């Protein structure tokens, strides 16, 4: 239960009212009392930069190392986070424990490093803070400075190379998307084209992480845009698989080759289709990707049809994909659509030039498949196609009409007979 005097003390400290603070202390308010948020007067004064109040509370015996429950924050940490340099100095002189940690395992230095408070970092280091302490996630002040993208803080930290090699620091900066740090680390002596043990380059990593600005920095520094890893994949493959559209655009603008396939025969376009990244499919086609290139009998269009992705199918057809390309089982997309009753796809393929009379390995046409399944709307659309042959027979001697009769689809039978089937 918070006493009225303690509550008034905390409120006065928060507002920077030093005279009221002194009066309340004289009336018996507890100097370490807290409000309903478990925050003490010293914590508020430190956070809000009320230095006179801080000094008054310290003289009154405030516990400089008191921690707020459930967060573990101290007055020093509040002051550091708010970049209150002079108050940080006052608290250090008042014997604040500079290596004290909050509930996340972070010290005051780690907070300052992440926020980029350069002057406070300098004071804490001078006071003997442990620069190598790791929080509960395993991060040190150095890693937090990289995460916060503060190269100026990194320059202040001692012996950084004993913690991270130059390459490790570059990789960590890429993963964090820390452009300023990355640029500071990227010197003329950096060999950016050297891959890691798996053949992955810095550019490939940036591509997989979708770090567009870092990609542009690497390309400007001369990294090879089409360098392959051990599986034959280029940075464009990496960006495509992860669906990073802006990264793909940056690589394409930097000269990435859309035709290169990995060791499995997959081009970036095939990967974009498989992953369902329609905007990347569009982008790759604009840069000349081949929509009819086959890999193990599959083309981008057959893969899109197999996945049922109408948006990508439409994009591929508009980009020059052959509407009559065959799936590995010998069927065309139109036959598959008719067999599955996919009226939208039937329309789309017919509009882009699909041949209604082509046959599969069983001798069946799209009309036969639609009639065999009893899809009235599909049969109706196929009958509207020019030069549809009603009397074609499959390898077993069945026509579209005889298949409908065999399966007893009266509505389909009626449609076919009206169209002239006999």
UniProtKB/TrEMBL annotation:
**Keyword Nucleus in annotation:** no
Keywords assigned by UniProt, alphabetized: ANK repeat, Repeat
SUPFAM superfamilies from the UniProt entry: Ankyrin repeat
- Identify the species of origin: Crocosphaera chwakensis CCY0110
Q: Where are the ANK repeats?
A: 37-69, 71-103, 104-136, 198-230, 231-263, 264-296, 296-328, 329-361, 396-422
Keyword Repeat recorded: yes
Q: Which domain of life is it from?
A: Bacteria
Q: Which Pfam families match?
A: Ank (PF00023), Ank_2 (PF12796), Ank_4 (PF13637)
Q: What is this protein called in UniProt? A: Ankyrin
| Gene3D superfamilies per record | Ankyrin repeat-containing domain (1.25.40.20)
């Amino acid at each position: 239960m918070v006493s009225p005097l303690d509550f008034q003390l905390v409120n006065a400290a928060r507002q920077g009212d030093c005279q009221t603070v002194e009066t309340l202390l004289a009336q018996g308010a507890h100097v370490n009392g807290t409000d309903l948020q478990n925050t003490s007067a010293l914590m508020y004064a430190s956070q809000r930069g009320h230095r006179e109040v801080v000094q008054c509370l310290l003289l009154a015996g405030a516990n400089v190392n008191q921690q707020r429950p459930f967060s573990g924050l101290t007055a020093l940490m509040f002051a550091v986070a708010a970049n209150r340099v002079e108050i940080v100095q006052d608290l250090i002189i008042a014997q604040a424990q500079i290596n004290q940690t909050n509930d996340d395992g972070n010290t005051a230095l780690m907070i300052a490093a992440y926020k980029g408070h350069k002057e406070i970092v300098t004071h804490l280091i001078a006071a003997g803070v442990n620069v190598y302490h790791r929080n509960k996630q395993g991060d040190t002040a150095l890693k937090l400075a990289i995460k916060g993208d503060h190269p100026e803080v990194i320059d202040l930290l001692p012996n950084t190379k004993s913690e991270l090699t130059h390459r490790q620091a570059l990789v960590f900066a890429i993963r964090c998307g820390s452009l300023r740090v990355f640029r500071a680390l990227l010197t003329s002596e950096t060999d950016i084209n050297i891959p890691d043990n798996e053949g992955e380059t810095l550019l490939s990593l940036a591509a997989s992480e979708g770090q567009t600005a870092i990609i542009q920095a690497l390309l400007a520094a001369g990294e090879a845009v089409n360098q392959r890893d051990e599986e034959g994949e280029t940075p464009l493959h990496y960006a495509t698989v992860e669906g990073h559209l802006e990264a793909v655009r940056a690589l394409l603008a930097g000269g990435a080759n859309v035709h290169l396939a990995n060791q499995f025969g997959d081009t970036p376009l095939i990967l974009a289709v498989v992953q369902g990244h329609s905007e990347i499919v569009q982008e790759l086609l604009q840069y000349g990707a081949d929509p009819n290139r086959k890999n193990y009998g599959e083309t981008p269009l057959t893969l899109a049809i197999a996945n049922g992705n109408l948006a990508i199918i439409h994009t591929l057809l508009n980009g020059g994909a052959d509407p009559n390309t065959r799936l590995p089982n010998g069927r065309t997309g139109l036959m598959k659509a008719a067999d599955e009753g996919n009226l939208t796809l039937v329309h789309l393929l017919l509009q882009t030039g699909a041949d209604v009379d082509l046959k599969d390995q069983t001798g069946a046409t799209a009309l036969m498949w639609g009639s065999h399944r009893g899809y009235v709307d599909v049969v109706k659309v196929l009958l509207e196609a020019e030069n549809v042959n009603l009397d074609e027979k499959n390898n077993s001697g069945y026509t579209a009409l005889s298949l409908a009769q065999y399966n007893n689809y009266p509505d389909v039978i009626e449609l076919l007979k009206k169209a002239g089937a006999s």
